[in-house]
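Lay summary. Proteins are chains of building blocks that fold into shapes, and those shapes determine what they do. In this project we predict the shape from the chain. Here is one chain we studied, written as its sequence of building blocks.
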Amino acid sequence: MSIGSRIVSGYDPERICIAVIGSHSALQILAGAKREGLCTVLLVREDLAPLYERFPWLYDYMLKLRSWSEIASGTIVEKLRSLNAILVPHAGLVEYVGVERAEKLEVPIHGNRGLFRIEADQHSKMRLLVDAGIPTPRVYGSPEEVDGLVIVKMPGAKGGRGYFLASSPEEVRRGLERAVREGLIRDPREAIIQEYVVGVPAYYHYYASRLYRRVELTGMDIRYESNVDGLRRLPPRFAESLEPSFVVVGNIPMVLRERLLLKVLEYGEAFARTVEQATGLPMMGPYSLESIVTPSLEIRVFEFSGRIVAGTNLYTGMGSPYTWLYWDEPMWPGRRIAREVREAALQGRLEEVVT
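And here is the predicted shape, written in a compact code that computers can read:
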């Protein structure tokens, strides 16, 4: 039995709350829980509270923190459990709290907590995708192997910060040395050197439902990144003098050619099966596969997120063209989470939707 299943067995199913950390996708998660009639708890650092205080109808309880590390403190954990709270993880949980504390957090989590450690390591992430039989870009074992254009990525949920392009062993080494100096990594081996695939970026959003025993496609997006997207607007002679960066600043909605949808769904389902095999815990809740679609319409998945991604914020209150295929009402990931939790509570199956 998982940590969450053990704890939630003592909860009052008629008084379940959805808890979320105040960043990333908190607004849509809170709005979705409210739409489903659930109680909401917001965990927020004091300096970020003014944003959420402008939307007081979205939360029933606001727990202000001096630092993110307080989330794992006995006081906060006890408060969450007294409120029958189920925590919805997003990129902030592991990034702010740390893998060790997030894994052992004595609060039920709607998601697979066994993925936290895998997702924090770029090399483990790629091995899981390969194990799922999903086409991926080539990964180079060392700078010396580089023989073409590559993208070098930092570990953790940093929104693309520190990523860089290189085309020779020396450029890779220099970039890794800079990343160590800037504190993005402690050891160059923490970063991953990946083949840069030319094509259209497409990020697929899924929801793995334990109650309905299916993987749903909930939307897609393209990330808008600085400054690489801004460089496209510059004349080549100016763009060539600037080094591209890949910090995500926003998201753009996307609809894929219908002939590609079967492959997208098959990859999402294969990923969910492989996660359960790798972690011993079922895949549940939202997740994302991040890909490049080549001119030959091959989908190459270069990364995944094992929890809700900010690109799903696009569909808050409306749903996407894909959620309407499952639900004849506005359904977005934040609401889909709350729907699953609410129905599980009504059916006496809360232990199945938490870890």
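What the prediction tells us: The domain at 138-195 is CATH 3.30.1490.20 (Dna Ligase; domain 1).
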